[in-house]
UniProtKB/TrEMBL annotation, chains A, B:
Organism: Actinoplanes regularis
UniProt subcellular location: Cytoplasm
Cofactor note: Binds 1 Mg(2+) ion per subunit. Binds 1 zinc ion per subunit.
A Gene Ontology term for the protein's cellular component: cytoplasm
InterPro entries: PRA-CH, PRib_AMP_CycHydrolase_dom, PRib_AMP_CycHydrolase_sf
Entry binding sites for Mg(2+): D87, D89, D91
Catalytic reaction equation(s): 1-(5-phospho-beta-D-ribosyl)-ATP + H2O = 1-(5-phospho-beta-D-ribosyl)-5'-AMP + diphosphate + H(+); 1-(5-phospho-beta-D-ribosyl)-5'-AMP + H2O = 1-(5-phospho-beta-D-ribosyl)-5-[(5-phospho-beta-D-ribosylamino)methylideneamino]imidazole-4-carboxamide
Annotated protein name in UniProt: Phosphoribosyl-AMP cyclohydrolase
SUPFAM superfamilies: HisI-like
Quaternary structure note: Homodimer.
Length: 124, 124
């Protein structure tokens, strides 16, 4: 499990603005600085956000491994954080990064290569 | 609650690729066609995705109201869907739209105006 709010060092005023999923997470949209390309979606709890804001290295909570991970720690594909913004209802973050190498574990530059058919487009 | 997988008309092959939160949802990142601006984050269950793909109008599941909502149904600020892509692990969608008016209920063009301090930037 992510650490509790009592254990995190994230500013309490920011913690109070987060609206989390039942498992304690907010969605982090990762966008590439300069190109505007949306690279991936990851998850943060309060502590991952604290680490991201204070180290400048994008740090997430892995839902599959149930642990913190610094992006690039094993792959070398780091994300240097330029800007973090919280959305109006507190359940999403927009993280603007400088991406080293590929953002996706498949080796693709971003994670959104699986296009779904929008059937309404055919009718236009 | 969102409708069950048995009740949705979404293609079973797509349903099988979705990795949902404990409350049955995937995150939908909404990006503006042309500008690349990230407008908002919303949530979809399988049925909301089905309606989005078949109508071309962005349709979400509201976590706060616990109901489906067609973006713009009350505000007039519709989103016409150009592309939908699923990410590599099935827990996020990237929805590319043509946005009419403001995407945010606050009247701002996007929902990410609440910038958080990245203290590491000061040390660079």
């Amino acid at each position: 499990m992510p650490v509790s709010d009592a254990e995190t060092s994230l500013d309490a005023a920011i913690v109070a603005r987060l609206k989390r999923t039942p498992d304690g997470l907010v969605a982090a949209i990762v966008q590439e600085h300069g190109t505007g390309e949306v690279l991936m979606l990851a998850w943060m709890d309060a502590e991952a956000l604290h680490r991201t804001l204070t180290t400048g290295r994008a740090t997430y909570w892995s839902r599959s491994r149930q642990e913190y991970w610094v992006k690039g720690a094993t792959s070398g594909h780091h994300q240097s954080v330029r800007r973090v913004a919280l959305d109006c209802d507190g359940d999403a973050l927009l993280v603007t990064v400088e991406q080293t190498g590929a953002a996706c574990h498949t080796g693709a530059h971003n994670c959104f290569s699986d296009e779904l058919p929008v059937s309404a487009l055919e009718a236009r």
